[in-house]
Amino acid sequence: MTKTLTITVNALTRVEGEGALHVQVNGDTIESVRLAIYEPPRFFEAFLRGRKIEEVPDITARICGICPVAYQMTSVHAIENALGIRISLGVRQLRRLLYCAEWIESHVLHIFMLNAPDFFDCHSGIELAEHFPDQVNMGLRMKKIGNGLLELLGGRAIHPVNVRIGGFYRLPTRDELARQLPDLRWALDAAVKSAHWIAGFDFPEFNIECELVAMKHASEYPMNEGEIASTRFPSIPVDRYEEYFGELQVQHSTALQSVRRDSQTPYFLGPLARLELNHGNLTPQAKKLFQDICPPLPLRNRFHSIIARIIEVVHAFEEAIAIIESYSPPSEPFTEYKSHASRGCAATEAPRGMIYHHYEIDDRGSVVSSKIVPPTSQNQLQIEADLREYLPRFLQESDETIASECEKLIRNYDPCISCSTHFLTLRLERT
Amino acid sequence: MNLLQPPPSKKRLGVFKFASCDGCQLSLLSCEDELLEVAGKIEIAHFLEASSEIKPGPYDIALVEGSITTPSDIERIRHIRQQSKTLVTIGACATSGGIQALRNWGDHEEFISCVYTNPAYIESLATSTAIANHVSVDFELRGCPIDRYQLLEVLTALIADRQPRTPQHSVCMECKRRGTVCLSITRALPCLGPVTQAGCGAICPAYDRACYGCFGPAAQANCPALSQHYLATGTPATKLVHALRNMNAGAEIFQIESDRLERGSPER
């Protein structure tokens, strides 16, 4: 007898933005897995048209409250590339510092408040704190120190105000930055301690082959610059991104899904991809941790993302300290420029993976068109493919268990659904 | 402790999201020093971003982030209103429609086809509107993003059953208090500080740039007078239109003024 079962389970929780998952099961066969993104579109690409390029970083920041720096940085780089603006070395270092601060703030939030609770069957970071008060308090303090650095450099941690085309509105003084050093050094130690704690978690085994994609730079761990590297294909320059990666619209999602154009296959972005492709450029303590606690390459267990994330936190604290110790303010906060009709693109590494922007500008310095591809929409198809592989382990369990295990897997990707979405529920159909 | 009195029960908090960037909810998680303390004083009944434990209403306090952009949003906010004793909107999206309210000046159908190859799959309203346009709101906390100290003030006030105290005056007052040189006077920059509500701490002028109005209009903001001053000192009208049409474009005073500037109509 065939029985159809439709179950509505809770909305996807402890991710940024709100999401849902639809699963259809026929006996032992999984018919379809759909990560549904229902967020009403906010039309950024449409209303950026006609705005002056100077307004772009303030507007694109509003795509996401969790990683506004990634949107600001990608848009200013793309516009600078279009106009041929060369930023000073000092500004480049401060931009890396800003990016370090965002990685710290976003990764630490994800590790302690969103992801770690799963390894102890806790509902929230607040509940986790009842069992591990020292570790969670240490995490909250690390996050505060990351936010402090963002506030100093960006004016505030959410939607920073200090980023502009060509550089910054105001440069921090050497003293202002140096005052952060004692906290940053404490935080570096705390991050190393946390890494050893996290490495001891009980990780489910879930290794399936896929293509990892991240930026790669000759001499540094990638944030703002580099080529686009892959575990399956040779690297390409960023301006060929659209030749190799395309977007599809599917009925069940308002976020476009990304695929490789040639094979129509998904690919996987984020800290695991960055670490696998760039571990040679980690800072010393982060590199030592990579050798001591990181599972052997290739890194394919999605549940190990939290290890990659904490190694990147250590890297970010170390690099932030190094940048501040060698900081001398550039002569000007920003490079002057003249606008002209042009096109340009850029990719950077948001905490949750590579993000791509492309702009066309007219001769009066207004935006003609833009294309913005957030990391979560690029990971969407991979998440669906992974769930399809992961689900058979739980099909005999209760619907509640299945839902909870799917959610746990999804949290490893640190999806930022707010970048494109909001209101979703999980539905499981058995026939 | 009086053993005959039952302990006061904790107030139940619900945090809800509509079209938004999640930044205002994140402000609550960014209260690192106070988070665990606040969490101990209230019961977090519904906060999807922070907890997988979801409890049904009613709620004593509902914090609502985001704007109304779909037909189902309208149903959902009505339901949340029915379930909530005190409803507080947090952030520019919830209080004035947010950055996505820029669609209110555009061709919605054209916007959809600009982004999507299959517009038929997309369900959204032609407007993005504030929560107060749909249900009654007990308190509005401004900002894009909100200021976390103001959020803590709102929460502690509501826990203590008193009215939250947040300023209604303009950013200029905060600038003076901070000792920042006025960019409008010294460098003729079109600063929105005089018409923008305080609360951010006057960050932008302290970072050497003009205020771009992310806290929305201050009480008694006189936008036409400010426009007249900037137009007279050489700022193009389109620049002022863009300045007013940002995160708080849907706030009535900014909307009226940006429309007036766009029409080129004389001051009322």
From TrEMBL, chain A:
Source organism phylogeny: Bacteria, Pseudomonadati, Planctomycetota, Planctomycetia, Pirellulales
Question: What SUPFAM superfamilies would the database entry show?
Answer: HydB/Nqo4-like
> What positions does the entry give for Ni(2+) binding?
64, 67, 416
Which molecular function GO terms apply here?
DNA binding; ferredoxin hydrogenase activity; hydrogen dehydrogenase activity; nickel cation binding
An example of a Pfam family matching this protein is NiFeSe_Hases
**Do the record's keywords include Lipid metabolism?**
no
Q: Which InterPro entries match?
A: Ni-dep_hyd_lsu, Ni-dep_hyd_lsu_Ni_BS, NiFe-Hase_large
Family recorded in the similarity comment: Belongs to the [NiFe]/[NiFeSe] hydrogenase large subunit family.
What's the Enzyme Commission number for this chain?
A: 1.12.1.2
Its recorded name reads NAD-reducing hydrogenase HoxS subunit beta
User: Which cofactors does this gene product need?
Assistant: Ni(2+); Fe cation
The record's section on PROSITE patterns has: NI_HGENASE_L_2 (PS00508)
The coding gene here is hoxH
Which positions in this protein are listed as binding Mg(2+)?
Answer: 45, 372, 422
- Residues that coordinate or bind Fe cation: 67, 419
- Per the record, the domain of life is Bacteria
Keyword terms:
Homeobox, Iron, Magnesium, Metal-binding, Nickel, Oxidoreductase
TrEMBL record, chain B:
Q: Which Pfam families match?
A: Oxidored_q6
One of the record's GO molecular function terms = iron-sulfur cluster binding
This protein's UniProt keywords: Homeobox, Oxidoreductase
Q: Does the keyword Oxidoreductase apply?
A: yes
Does Oxidoreductase count among this protein's keywords?
yes
* SUPFAM superfamilies per UniProt: HydA/Nqo6-like (SSF56770)
The NADH:ubiquinone oxidoreductase-like 20kDa subunit domain extends over 21-158
- EC number(s) on record? 1.12.1.2
What Gene3D superfamilies is this protein classified in?
Answer: NADH:ubiquinone oxidoreductase-like, 20kDa subunit
Going by the record, the broad EC class of this enzyme is oxidoreductase
Report the PANTHER family cross-referenced here. COENZYME F420-REDUCING HYDROGENASE, GAMMA SUBUNIT (PTHR42845), F420-NON-REDUCING HYDROGENASE VHU SUBUNIT G (PTHR42845:SF2)
What is this protein's record name? NAD-reducing hydrogenase HoxS subunit delta
Q: Which organism is it from?
A: Rubripirellula reticaptiva
Gene from which the chain derives: hoxY
